[in-house]
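FYI - complex with zinc ion, inputs then prediction.
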Amino acid sequence: MSINSSCSGGNNSNNNNGGGNSSGGSPCGACKFLRRKCVPGCIFAPYFDSEQGATHFAAVHKVFGASNVSKLLLNIPVHKRLDAVVTICYEAQARLRDPVYGCVAHIFALQQQVIHNNRLINWWVNWLMIC
Ligand SMILES: [Zn+2]
């Protein structure tokens, strides 16, 4: 599972002031999806680009709701919002894929992989000690 750069603000790295549609051109991905005017200071603009941002925002809106995400971002310091958006996008995509467990299913699979690999390491260490 991977997060696309449009969800991480990769195309808007020069606009890290916590909001705004500084380009004055096309609306951000969130406003594009919500079919509303993207105003200067838009909370979503730095994180959801006009191209692929709408697709990612669709998942976020379906799982959490645009209003809830907006309120959540407003309560987070600007310098931490990017991490929050990446996490929200990740969880939203995971919830759509697995509505019951979300990203917990992925964490559980990774834990099982760690357990398996630790057993392999222990087996090889024991084998080397015998030789
Ligand atoms: Zn916008």
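Residues 1-5, 9-19 have pLDDT under 50 and may be disordered. The radius of gyration is 20 Å.
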